[in-house]
Amino acid sequence: MSDLKNTERLDKILSNNGIGTRRDVKRLIRSGKISVNRIIVREPEFHVDGSSDEILVDGKPLTVEQNAYFMMNKASGAVCSTKSDRRKTVFEYIFSEDNRKYPGGNLSTVGRLDADTEGLLIITSDGNLIHRVTFPKYEVPKTYLVYLRDSVDDSEKLSYEKKLAAGVHIEAEGKDGEADCRPAVIEWKEKNQYHTKTSECPSEVCCLTVTEGKFHEVKRIFKALGNEVVYLKRIRINNLFLDETLKEGSYRPLTKEEIRLLDVEEKND
Ligand code: URA
Q1: Which of 54, 205, 225, 250 pairs with 146 at a CA distance of 20 to 30 A?
Q2: What's the CA-to-centroid distance between 227 and ligand 1, angstroms?
């Protein structure tokens, strides 16, 4: 069998290539309908190389589309939508035109960042991965570097921590109603180690980890705590961190290992 670094689970390859949901394909594999290099495989977690191993589904060869996966360090001002009259979309950073078509499927973002938010954005043609990483039941952690308008003293810091751990109640915004957020974790940072675009030291710096993706969630959380986000940058999704060597607005393909760090195990409903 091929080098493990270039392989993926058989159930994942099958579901990514239109054979069914992860649950469907697990059933198919266990029923002995799938062979790899002419040998029947009954273990969904069996690793195969989609580019070189011959996979037969009920005797018919599987055409493995290679999905595209990019990491972008999103620039402030870029919008995550597919069309925008005023501002450049994140897709235009890749194609320099209004186009999302890529071999293997249309590109989409894994969740959205506000126009003024910077940092880690994943762009892919893998709809199953988008579902797993963004669907609330998976509770995928996302970490943001946050600069706050007001400094926070030690007793207030404790109060923020407690409120965040209990789940902050946020007010309605846009079409999104008021809601109780899931517990979030805050880590206070040494503010002197950071600087704003005009080289000033921010009033307060922290990292906030949330496990859902409500509209303007981080900004609404700090508003509910009586403060305001003045700078926001996503630095982590699941176990994948932003490559800080990527310049603002630039992107590169993800490695297989990075896709693994980003992805989560499919859960049954
Ligand atoms: N929370 C926000 O408020 N904005 C983002 O862009 C992402 C999370």
Answers
A1: 250
A2: 15
Distance CA 121, CA 32 (A): 39
Taking the CA of residue 234 as reference, the ligand 1 atom at the shortest distance is 7
How far does the centroid of ligand 1 lie from the alpha carbon of residue 269, in Å? 27
The model's pLDDT over 68-90, given as tens digits with 9 standing for 90+, comes to 999 999 999 999 998 877 899 99
Which H or E element spans position 128?
helix 127-134
CATH class of the structural domain 141-237: alpha beta
Q: Which residue minimizes the CA distance to atom 3 of ligand 1?
A: 216
Q: What is the pTM of this model?
A: 0.82
Residue 83 is predicted with a pLDDT of 83
Helix, strand, coil fractions of the chain, as percent rounded to 5: 25, 25, 50
CATH topology assigned to domain 66-135+243-269: Alpha-Beta Plaits (3.30.70)
Q: Does the domain at residues 4-61 carry the CATH identifier 3.10.290.10? A: yes
Is residue 114 flagged as an active site residue?
yes
